Amino acid sequence: MKKIILSTLFVMQIVFAFAQSGTGVSGKVVDSKTQKPMQSVIVSVQNTNLMQLTDASGKFSFDKVETGNQLLRIRTNGYKDQLLQVEIVEGQLLDMGPIALEEDLTQEKQMTLISITDNDLSDDNSGSESTAGLLQASKDVFQQAAAYNFGQARFSVRGIDNEYSNILINGVSMNRVSDGRPQYSNWGGLNDATRNQEFTDGSKPSDYSFGGIAGTQYITTRASVYRPGTRISFLGTNTNYSYRAMATHASGMDKNGWAYVISGGRRWAQEGYFDGTDYAANSLFASIEKKINDKHSINFTSIYAQNRRGKNSPNTQEVTDLKDFKYNSYWGYQEGEKRNSRVKDVEEPIFTLSHYWKFNSKTRLHTNLSYQFGEIGNSRIDFQKADNPDPNYYKKLPSYYTTLYTYSNDIATYTPDFAAAEQAKANFLAQPQMDWTAMYRINNENIANGSRYVLYEDRTDDKTLIANTILSSQLADNIVMNAGGSFTKSKSANFQNLLDLLGGTHFNDIDTFGTTDDQQQSDLNNPNRMVGVGDKYGYNYNVNATKIDAFTQFKFTYDKIDFYLGQSFTRSSYQREGLYKNGYYPDSSLGKSEKLNFDNFGFKGGMTYKLTGQHYFDFNGVYMSKAPNTKDVFPNARLNNDTTDNITNEIIKSADASYIIRMPSLKARFTAYFNETENTTDISFYYADAVSLGNGEFVSEVVTGQNKRNKGVEVGLEYQVTSTIKATAVAAYGEYTYTNNPNLAIHADGVTEDIFNGKTYMEGYKQAGMPQQAYSAGLEYRDPKFWWISANVNYLSNNYLDVAPLIRTSQYITESDQANFPYDAALSASYLAQEKFDAFTLVNLVGGKTWRIKEKTLGLFANVNNVFDIQYKTGGFEQARNASYSELYKDHQGPTRAFGPKYFYGYGRTFMVNIYLNF
After folding, report:
1. How far is residue 158 CA from its own chain's centroid?
2. pLDDT one-digit tens code per residue, 554-595
3. Shortest CA distance to 731 belongs to which of 747, 705, 712, 745?
4. Which among 681, 818, 820 has a CA at the least distance from the CA of 745?
5. What is the tens place of the pLDDT at every residue in 190-220?
6. What pLDDT sits at residue 720?
7. DSSP assignment of 635-681, as one string?
8. Residue 409 banded pLDDT, cuts 50, 70, 90
9. Whole-number Å distance between alpha carbons of 865 and 870
10. 672/675 Cα distance (integer angstroms)
11. Are 548 and 570 in contact (CB under 8 A)?
């Protein structure tokens, strides 16, 4: 056995020359441990159209291979790729005999990945996961580093948001209409069931869709493609959950043409890594396929993944210094148990019926009908005629008292109250968490007039129907066509749902910010309502969307050059339907809005020039437009039917060029890229003090016509030093900036005209939320006795704070500023400078071991991330509450800022141990 394994590891450097009749190569693929034949393994001759799947006995045979040195690539999910150098001689058939594939133990990274998407720190009321990037299934060394080493620091490949990617399950897009992003929780905890993946980097051609500039990830759940067997696993960790149990069974195709896969998992934690972040998730999966005949198969897939998790708060530096970076203000004790007020709850099952039609050996048609429904809720405290219950509310912190100013005859004087600041500090440290007991007490004291505090959720109930079809046809020996069409119909119901009266009997459905009786009514058709648990209140509306898209793609393969051309067309239609007649907007809130239609086109192309059989030049380019997401079309969708002024399609331009080396011992990729997006829209809501002639207002901020540019280089190197030692090196250098001064509109409910409408000076500022430079070096030792260990060192830098557009407008300086706070150019520059986070280094250790016990495989996989427990910021944002020079001046006077930036932090030292059994 050991000789077989060693020969397999060294075979990358062996030239085979065993001659038989014919001109070509044949062989048999077997499992290195069991020596059993492996079916449906992909065998291809590089730089040709020659590709086969091994048959039931593991055999393959090519009888028309060009003479000379060739590279034979053998690959399948769950095993290490083999790249074998062979010499083809005219009139001779090389019989390579048994070729042993070794289980890819490093794929346990994909199977056990605990990603930032699950702990998505920045998502508050959003429906989808606003994460850095895809969970790459790619074996490219750079993509592996981006997913597993850099991902813990919210690294984003090329700085592109995942709304510009395309996630497909059986060809059906999982990107949501509301914000363009996938909801990873919809299939979370089903790592075994979703392991059959293909990843297409950037704008490169995908067989399944036109794709986006952040890549295409295709997940297939067709029952017959799973390796038969059973797998059970148990994982322990100290990240966003503590434990995970999973079990999966795949039957394989039986003699009657039936195959099925079932899988289930549970993840849970009483408290995750950050304080008060409980976690509970249950996942179920079933896929069943019936092979009708050699041409037709039908597959039905059902996915149910329920996820409930407590969130953690972003905090100012003042709060972090008073507590620590794990501090979370969202929770408090209730009858001795921790209770989090901010909980995200996702429950959206997916059902897909697929038909696979093989016309002949060259043409296939794959058709899907998918239906998804369910709910996403984001809870929080609502309160009326009562103090803000958040323990780190700015008036409860020392900085509020150390930044006080008083005015006499319009002259401002700095009057800090340090005694009150010390008392505020003592009070905060004595009661740093949410006081549930006090809220229940206050509600009980006001039982007749209704609860002062309640727990509610911002709820989204989506229903989505998708029908699509994908055609693949080999038109000629060197031409392949891919084409597809899709129809999407979705209805998104959005409302506030009352969860808990916190000891009260009812809650008054009024808006206390309203200055008139009418403005205080959420629904003038049902004024002064008293609502209870399970009732809708506050806002209630639907967004209906229809989307039609189609694409074609042609791939051409020749001896020295391959190239492709792709085209796409998309039509998107959106309409809001208000179900409440809102008191602020009695004439524009109830009923249906105008229907907005957006037509978009895309064109892309690329080529690969084969310098030799091991050296390539690769080029890709795309020009496309993209419809705005529904959340950007309706800027105040909760209250009215208004649409964003001058909103239009985004324009996306992208190009990349790569030099690629593929040798048995060395794999390398050097890539330069350029991406530009124009006419993007961004909408946010917050309370701002320095607006509306100095009077504070709760405002909506709409930024339109924003342009972004992302450029940089990527390097990935993988070198097989010996048969057991592999070295890797990865580098990413990027510059991600805003390239223009877009328009900014500030609007407040009850105010007829925009508070501000003009330019915001954003040109030159950096895009925030991810490191723009990342470097990694690693070593891996893989022992012939089926154990391995690797270590890598990762350096990440150039991560920036998200700046507030309102601070960078013509209203930044006012006449009152000049009177009380003479303008100081140096101070102003420091206030407007974008904060750059400190660089940091993370050391990770990963290892695994498998044992063969009769017909079973027992495996252990473990890692320790951030070995030296480095504390680092992953992101943050400026507060726009104080948006003028004078307000910023006052906020900087004390030892700490009342309205300083709020930050997110990464994990410190974490571990994960996973044990699994395959049989």
Report:
1. 14
2. 999 998 999 999 999 999 999 999 999 999 999 999 999 999
3. 712
4. 681
5. 999 998 988 898 999 999 999 999 999 999 9
6. 94
7. TTTTT-----TT---EEEEEEEEEEEEE-SSEEEEEEEEEEEEEEEE
8. confident
9. 10
10. 11
11. yes
Check pLDDT > 70 for residue 116: no
Location of structure tokens 């150390």: 402
Q: How far apart are CA 331 and CA 379, in angstroms?
A: 12
pLDDT band of residue 347 (cuts 50, 70, 90) is very high
Please identify which residue in the block is written with the tokens 């989204």.
460
Query: What's the CA gap between 269 and 568, in Å, rounded?
Result: 45
Q: Residue type at 79?
A: Y
| SS3 letters across 670-697 | EEEEEEEEEEEEEEEEEEECCCCCCCCE
Q: Report yes or no: 669 and 201 within 8 Å, Cβ to Cβ.
A: no
Count CB-CB contacts under 10 A for residue 525. 10
- Nearest C-alpha neighbor of 252 from the set 298, 287, 206: 287
Structure tokens at 909: 């030292």
CA 654 to mean position of chain CA atoms:
21
**What does the mean pLDDT of the chain come to?**
90
Structure tokens given for 302:
């059902």
SS3 call for 190? coil
Does the pLDDT value for residue 312 go beyond 70? yes
Does this model's pTM top 0.85? My answer is: yes
Which of 225, 184, 3, 194 has the alpha carbon at shortest distance from 98? 3
Angle at 587 (CA atoms; ends 686, 636), nearest 5 degrees: 25
CA 745 from chain centre, in angstroms, equals: 29
Q: Which two tokens stand for residue 193?
A: 């069931």
Of all helices (H) and strands (E), which one includes residue 89?
none
CA 267 to chain centre: 19
The residue written with tokens 């409930």 in the block is: 308
Instruction: Find out whether 510 and 520 touch, Cβ atoms under 8 Å.
Output: yes
The number of helix segments (H) and strand segments (E) in the chain equals 11, 46
Sort 408 into a burial class: Cβ within 10 Å, 0-12 / 13-18 / 19+.
exposed
First to last CA, the chain: 20
pLDDT digits (tens, 9 = 90+) for 117-156: 333 434 444 444 444 444 444 678 999 899 889 988 999 9
Interatomic CA distance for residues 13 and 130, integer angstroms:
45
**Closest C-alpha to 782, from 145, 38, 109, 102:** 102
Q: Is the pLDDT of residue 889 over 50?
A: yes
- Strand-pair category, 216-219 with 166-169: parallel
- The first and second tokens of residue 609, run together, are 């020039």
- Which amino acid is residue 495, in one-letter code? F
How far, in Å, are 48, 129, 899 from residue 721 at the CA level?
A: 29, 40, 54
Q: Both tokens of residue 453?
A: 């505090």
Is residue 866 within 8 Å of 842, Cβ to Cβ?
yes
Give the integer Cα–Cα distance in Å for 467 and 465: 7
Distance CA 664, CA 619 (A): 23
Is the pLDDT at 285 greater than 50? The verdict is: yes
Residue 595, number of CB atoms within 10 A of its CB: 11
692: buried, middle or exposed (CB in 10 Å: 19+, 13-18, 0-12)? middle
Dig out the tokens for 715 from the structure. Answer: 């390097």
What sign does the CA torsion over 746, 749, 751, 752 have?
positive
State the Cα–Cα distance between residues 901 and 314, nearest whole angstrom: 9
Share of the chain above pLDDT 70, in %: 92
Q: Is the pLDDT of residue 255 over 80?
A: yes
Name the residue among 310, 246, 243 with its Cα closest to residue 284.
Answer: 246
Cβ–Cβ < 8 Å for 712, 158 = yes
The length of the chain is 919
HEC profile of 204-224: CCCCCCCCCCCCEEEECCCHH
Sign of CA dihedral 659, 662, 668, 671: positive
What are the respective helix, strand and coil percentages of the chain, to the nearest 5?
15, 50, 40
